[in-house]
Every structure is written in structure tokens, then in C-alpha cells.
Amino acid sequence: xxxxxxxxxxxxxxxxxxxxxxxxxxxxxxxxxxxxxxxxxxxxxxxxxxxxxxxxxxxxxxxxxxxxxxxxxxxxxxxxxxxxxxxxxxxxxxxxxxxxxxxxxxxxxxxxxxxxxxxxxxxxxxxxxxxxxxxxxxxxxxxxxxxxxxxxxxxxxxxxxxxxxxxxxxxxxxxxxxxxxx
Length: 182
Known about the structure:
Blueprint: E1 10-14, H1 16-28, E2 35-40, H2 45-60, E3 68-73, H3 77-90, E4 99-102, H4 105-117, E5 128-130, H5 136-140, H6 152-167, E6 175-179
Parallel strand pairs: 1-6, 2-3, 2-4, 4-5
Helix pairs in contact: 1-2, 3-4
């Protein structure tokens, strides 16, 4: 589970540090100044937190909100691709971003494909694209995708260990936090 459930032992994913590190790296090491954020239209507390963490990290790194565009997709590739295509058309085929940060890897793949197919931009030479989830495909696509790993294996291990401890009538922590890794 991504969020605490009162009264039920919960495994939380802590992604603030990894998202802040990612933004700081993009600004300080890659020299990115203009950002697009491919967020999602969702009631998901975690998705909304990710977006806010990114916006705050950009502000901390002296990136003006006027240099940030936020799009809200659903969770699917085709939606993100369509949103970027509409934006590109409305801006008269101009797409002058240094980096696109996507809320998940599927959205990031849509951003990468859009950049290559419609905007004539090379990733990562012309624009940096990042994702979140560390899907297996992220390592094997060309170019590979910079992404954040939620440490799902460790979350599952912690959940299984918690269940075993409960079955054995042992005390378990109310909340366990697994830190995401960029």
C-alpha cells in the first residue's frame, strides 16, 4: 500500500527524497531550466503528492513556475501522447523543454515517443525524460529510461514478513517505510 491505513499495519513508499534528488540532478547536473510535468488526473493521494513534491523541488532549485508546464493525463500511454500532441499543435509545433518528468514509466514512454516522432527531439541529447516505477522495459529500451524504483520487492517482503509475524501473534509495526531509489 502506498499510504497508511489507520488500524492496519501498512507498508508505505517514501518517494520525497528520490524525487527531490532527481530534480536537483536535472537542474544542477543536466542544466535543465524548462520543465514539463506529465501528471495524472486522479484522486490518488500518492500521485498528487508526487506532483507537489516535484513542484516544490523545482521551486527550491530556483526554477520559476513560469518555466514549468503541468499536464494531467490518465494513467495511459495514449492519453499522455495525445496531450503532448495537442500542446505541440497549439504552440505551432514548438516544444522547447529541457526535461519532462512523468508520474509513471508508461507516461514517460509516451513522452519519449512523442519527442522522437513528432517534436524531432533526441532523448537524452535534446531533452531529458524521466519516469517512475522502474518497469523492466526502462532498462531495455533505447535509450534507457531514467526512472525511480519504488522497491516493490522490499515492500512485498515487508508485507509478507508482517503477515507471518501477525499469524505468529508477534507485535508488528503500525507503519513501515520503504524508501524509493532514483
